[in-house]
Design goal:
Rossmann fold; 7-stranded parallel sheet
């Protein structure tokens, strides 16, 4: 694991996008296709804004998966991650991707986990763009996270800290409106990615960053597992890095 402290959010977005884009280029050159995981949330705004502007990527050779989606949420809902990724990524690309495997949790969530799990097992991931939650979660793997399951996607219960973050970022009108269940990519599946690009801006993430990067590897701090990935890079802005002792 490496850590890069950037000048500000915009610099973070540029550096994270450039690193991931280089991996996409390399995968296409090597195999003719790139397999990519993308995340959502406010932490990804700047990175996605830069990624879609990257020149000379043949997006028709890129297959996308994403990390999570709320159970029973329609794509028309303002907080839908499918909606977020369609509007902020897919619709902004200069050409359609080879495939974008949207996670649809409106129906049978367990069946959707199986469907996406079978797909992603056929597509070894070249780069995963992710973030870290205020409670230290990865995707929607809230503490204590399951570090053992090999299932690619699982149904999870969302803790109050996670739900407060979603409300605080403005995705829902009230805390009570935030769903309590979601489908999430598992921790082990995220770690299978050849390269991990983790974007974490904002002071509200500072405690989670410190615990994840300088504390013990523990399911109580799910993102601490990134310490064990040899090609994970954590991109921070100064507020997110403000409590690190090794700055």
């Amino acid at each position: 694991m490496k850590v890069e402290i950037c000048a500000d959010k915009q610099d973070l977005g540029k550096r994270a996008a450039a690193a991931g884009a280089a991996q996409i280029h390399a995968a296409i050159a090597d195999r003719g296709v790139a397999h990519v995981i993308v995340a959502t949330g406010a932490s990804q705004f700047e990175m996605l804004g830069e990624l879609v502007k990257t020149p000379n990527i043949d997006w028709s050779k890129v297959i996308f998966f994403h990390l999570d989606e709320y159970v029973a949420m329609p794509m028309t809902h303002p907080a839908s991650f499918r909606k977020y990724l369609k509007e902020r990524l897919v619709d902004q690309l200069p050409q359609p991707p080879k495939a974008f495997h949207y996670l649809n949790a409106e129906g049978d969530a367990a069946a959707e986990c199986r469907r996406l799990g079978e797909l992603i097992e056929k597509h070894p991931i070249d780069v995963a763009f992710i973030g870290i939650g205020e409670n230290g979660h990865l995707a929607f793997n809230d503490p204590p996270a399951d570090f053992d399951t090999e299932q690619p996607y699982i149904v999870v219960n969302l803790d109050d800290a996670c739900r407060r973050q979603q409300f605080g970022e403005g995705w829902f009108p009230t805390f009570e409106a935030v769903p309590t269940r979601a489908i999430s990519m598992s921790v082990r599946q995220i770690l299978k990615s050849n390269m991990i690009v983790c974007s974490v801006p904002d002071e509200r993430k500072a405690a989670a960053v410190k615990n994840s990067l300088e504390g013990a590897v523990t399911p109580q701090v799910p993102a601490s597992i990134l310490q064990e990935h040899p090609r994970a890079t954590i991109y921070l802005d100064p507020p997110a890095a403000s409590t690190l002792s090794k700055r």
